[in-house]
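Researcher: We plan to redesign the surface later, but first we want a full-length starting point. Tokens attached.
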């Protein structure tokens, strides 16, 4: 065995086994060690303290003179006390706008003093959820249909739709009277005591004659005056859909509201304005006084959807194809191949049909060319981006579209991980030991299957490999490292001195000693002397 000469003589040898490990002398030392293990409460302490043999089983007894509670020992916030009474909790929940048990489960954490299960916390006072939210007991509904009818008529409700909106003005009116009074029910007209509506003209020709007789010259005239004849439908284009052509034919007018007489002419005018969507159309249609505000109504008989309204009838140039691509929101050649057949006469191969104008699909689809990997990484590092979420927010805030939202996919040929991309130190775990040091990773993984110390010990060993062995190229495997001649221990001592605490220094020494001695026993036939 190598003599244990400590840090001054380089890498430690086996420290031997002692019958009894001396516990940390002070509360502060024990606190640091517990937090290194990721302990956040007394329950996790009971489960994990044995990973560090110097941690006592009962720190509150071991350090009783300095003890100030678990929260201070583990540097965590103290739990917030809950409201003492049901009434206080009830008022707090109502103040947050919570009015149901479902909403309570979702939002109670907005007030840290609200318990997760008030029915258990205040079990002696608890009545029900409606009571907790201050809701009054529901009023009994009218027993008889006649009583309900009188109440509804008293409110002067005239239609089924109006009843659905206003029945709650009388808490004794049911939401669905047709169900509550099913045996006596004769319909809403009878219930509300109103006359049923008059049926519209049965044919388009009859309605057209009636509208012309009233002198209507436009759809607006019709809308404002149709009440003069109750048999004229509100929307004749829908009522007589199979026979409908357009308003100027229906009203016998040569010009309809001074608007374009056909949907094709209106579509061409919209394209001339450079409109690509319904939102842009709504914002800009007034630039051409002959464009209607609602083309879907103006040309209802010929209307399909806004995209087809805006698309060209024929494609005479690559510019027409590019316009269609913007309207259809096509992002690349694959999407174009998927949809072009649904919108004839879009050409299957625009690169052939318009070869003299063709550049590439990027230009046709207005696809942004991203930075290369090194440029994108440099932008991220120079702007201090800390993680993936911060990277996405940076793109949103700056509007820099040359930064891809998914760099791991865009740069998949050269991508390593987010830590490297953002210029951050990779976590000290086995996962981040890469070629040509994979034999170190495998040896550590094998060692950790039986070693105590969990994530902390793995972190110490990975730190040793990456910051000492890998940095100074001391061997691609533990065997190569242990059999190498003239290995300098000075960088290792410097690595230890750079650590934040004696606990971490000691952790690295112990972990490396155990690991290397394990390699010596298994692969090199014993320990170095």
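Model: Full-length starting sequence:
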């Amino acid at each position: 065995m190598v003599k244990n000469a400590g840090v001054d003589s380089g890498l430690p040898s086996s420290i031997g086994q002692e019958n009894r490990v001396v516990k940390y002398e002070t509360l502060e030392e024990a606190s640091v060690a517990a937090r290194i293990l990721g302990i956040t409460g007394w329950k996790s302490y009971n489960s994990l303290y044995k990973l560090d043999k110097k941690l006592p089983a009962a720190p509150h007894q071991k350090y009783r003179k300095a003890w100030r509670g678990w929260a201070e020992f583990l540097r965590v916030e103290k739990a917030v006390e809950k409201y003492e009474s049901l009434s206080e909790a009830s008022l707090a929940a109502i103040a947050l706008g919570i009015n149901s048990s479902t909403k309570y489960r979702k939002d109670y954490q907005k007030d840290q003093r609200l318990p997760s299960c008030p029915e258990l916390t205040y079990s002696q006072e608890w009545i029900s959820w409606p009571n907790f939210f201050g809701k009054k007991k529901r009023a009994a509904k009218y027993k008889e249909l006649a009583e309900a009818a009188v109440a509804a008529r008293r409110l002067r409700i005239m239609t089924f739709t109006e009843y659905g909106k206003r029945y709650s003005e009388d808490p004794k009116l049911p939401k669905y009277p047709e169900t509550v009074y099913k045996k006596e029910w004769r319909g809403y007209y009878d219930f509300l005591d109103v006359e049923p509506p008059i049926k519209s003209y049965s044919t388009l020709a009859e309605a057209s004659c009636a509208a012309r007789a009233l002198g209507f010259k436009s759809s607006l005239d019709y809308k404002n005056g149709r009440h003069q004849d109750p048999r004229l439908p509100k929307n004749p284009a829908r009522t007589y859909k199979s026979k409908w052509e357009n308003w100027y034919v229906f009203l016998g007018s040569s010009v309809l509201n001074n608007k374009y007489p056909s949907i094709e002419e209106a579509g061409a005018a919209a394209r001339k304005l450079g409109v690509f969507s319904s939102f842009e159309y709504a914002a800009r249609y007034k630039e051409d006084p002959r464009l209607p505000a609602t083309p879907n109504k103006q040309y209802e008989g010929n209307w399909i959807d806004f995209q087809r309204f805006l698309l060209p009838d024929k494609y005479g140039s690559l510019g027409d194809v590019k316009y269609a691509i913007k309207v259809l929101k096509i992002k690349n050649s694959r999407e174009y191949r998927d949809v072009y057949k649904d919108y004839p006469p879009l050409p299957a191969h625009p690169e052939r049909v318009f070869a003299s104008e063709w550049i590439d699909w990027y230009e046709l689809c207005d696809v942004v060319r991203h930075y290369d990997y090194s440029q994108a990484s440099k932008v991220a590092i120079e702007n201090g981006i800390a993680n993936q979420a911060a990277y996405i927010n940076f793109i949103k805030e700056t509007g820099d579209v040359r930064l891809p939202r998914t760099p791991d996919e865009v740069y998949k040929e050269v991508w390593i991980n987010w830590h490297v991309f953002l210029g951050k130190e990779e976590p000290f775990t086995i996962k981040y030991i890469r070629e040509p040091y994979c034999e170190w990773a495998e040896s550590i993984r094998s060692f950790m299957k039986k070693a105590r110390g969990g994530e902390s010990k793995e972190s110490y060993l990975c730190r040793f490999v990456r910051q000492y062995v890998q940095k100074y190229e001391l061997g691609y495997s533990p065997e190569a490292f242990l059999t190498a001649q003239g290995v300098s221990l000075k960088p290792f001592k410097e690595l230890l001195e750079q650590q934040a605490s004696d606990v971490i220094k000691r952790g690295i020494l112990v972990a490396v000693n155990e690991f290397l001695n394990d390699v010596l026993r298994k692969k090199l036939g014993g320990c170095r002397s």
